[in-house]
Write a structure and sequence with these properties.
alpha+beta, 3-stranded antiparallel β-sheet, OB fold (Dihydrolipoamide Acetyltransferase, E2P), about 20% helix
């Protein structure tokens, strides 16, 4: 794929043109990403208080006991979204699903331990340990380039 940027001082509005021989899933994804301008904030509930959680402050988002939680450095919040909705909202940020019940922020990972047979142990910067399920191991290895 070639990317070309043309600077024109007379241009009043930014315009993006895609030139291709056929529509592909990759092009559809690019169009979706370019047109998606929703803020990527998450509302976290703790007792009677709602806090706006910035994605860069979230270490992981996980489902447990029928609820979805967001874990930050200082606290854990209840999220009133389903896990797949959070995943869609944060897909352009550095989050990746590692199991059916866990999404992690790759920027908050301290290390990946590959010594476990069939899975990967993930240690986050805050000390939380979680595991990549077998179903997602190939995806994570590809993401890490291993």
């Amino acid at each position: 794929m070639q990317v070309e940027v043309k600077v024109d001082e007379n241009c009043k509005a930014t315009r993006i043109i895609i030139v291709t021989d056929k529509m592909t899933e990759e092009i559809n994804e690019i169009i979706k990403r370019l047109s998606d301008e929703q803020p990527k904030m998450i509302a976290g509930f703790k007792e009677d208080v709602v806090e706006v959680l910035e994605p860069e402050n979230i270490y992981r988002i996980y489902a447990e006991a029928g609820k979805v939680f967001a874990e930050t450095k200082s606290d854990t919040y209840v999220i009133r979204l389903r896990l797949y909705e959070v995943e869609q909202r944060l897909e352009r940020v550095s989050f990746v699903r590692i199991s059916n019940s866990d999404i992690i922020n790759l920027k908050k990972v301290k290390r990946f331990d590959l010594s476990f047979a069939g899975t990967i142990c993930v240690t986050l910067l805050n000390g939380t340990v979680t595991y990549v399920s077998r179903r997602f191991v190939t995806k994570i290895k590809k993401l890490l380039g291993i």
